[in-house]
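Appendix B. Raw example, untouched.
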Amino acid sequence: MDNTVIKEPAIHKGVAYALLAAALFGASTPFSKALVGHVAPVALAGLLYLGSGIGLLACYIVRAVAQRGGRDKPVALTAPDLPWLGGAIAAGGVAGPVLLMSGLTLTPASAASLLLNMEGVLTAMLAWFVFKENFDRRIFIGMLLIVVAGALLSWEQIPVLGVPWGALAIIGACLCWAIDNNLTRKVSASDPLQIAGIKGLVAGSVNLSIALAMGFLLPDTRTVLTAGLVGFCGYGLSLVMFVLALRHLGTARTGAYFSAAPFVGAAISLGMLGDAPGPLFWIAAALMGGGIWLHLTETHEHEHDHLSMEHLHEHSHDTHHQHDHDFDWDGKAPHAHRHRHVPIRHAHPHYPDIHHRHDHRT
């Protein structure tokens, strides 16, 4: 056994990743809204994701050059990962952005930003009831507050539009991204830069091809570059942070922290686009804030079992990683190799990360 000082991993690292992902994505919404009038929704979705993919591809190449000859490299995607990633791209990379851009043409950016909180709710519902992640009363009440807030924002459009098609399109986008999030969790131990880069290139190419086939023309060069930059930050870098958060927090809780994104977008849109929200907006904002607070203040600790398992991911040595190496290692730097976990039973604060996906009887 390595003579390594064992310490518990910082679970708040996942929270930081999730909130950074939320800030990047939330800021992209009002900027996307500003571009909607200049580009057809499906073409804009393509430009956003293609900008994300090209930017991340450049980052991937730079990193590969910097790490040439080194042993500790990120874990690449494998063949079993591809169906999960393909489903995530189809739902979140193709259908979701088109629905969002369509919804933005009918919805004020501030209200649209808050409606995006539904992504966290739908992500959690799928994680709980389809993928069997645990939840408790506090988490459920927080999600309920966010659902009520989303309903209020949809209701606010009914007197103006009859059927709130804009809100429904945005909620549809959130459902697509909820499916995407749960499928992406299946590959979250792999290289997040590779995952996000492939998603951006494929989704961007598909959406842009659809737009051109429908007869839409590309906008001027300045608009194309602006959309690419917004996509790189709000879709590319945000997704990299989101995948890292999935490793530490699980799908439902990452989605809950990601619910902070709409508040970033709403704050920017109020100042940048001059939106004048009504009373229901502020009531919805308060409800959503309460729901997010319930998630942020959650604690989850109990005695639990770790079964024997073998997998491959980047890690440092902590209470969950105590194993020998058949290669030289300095005992400090994170490293990636296939390793086996021995059965262990203990208690500590944790989330349903890649090592804590166990059943709960209470």
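End of appendix B.
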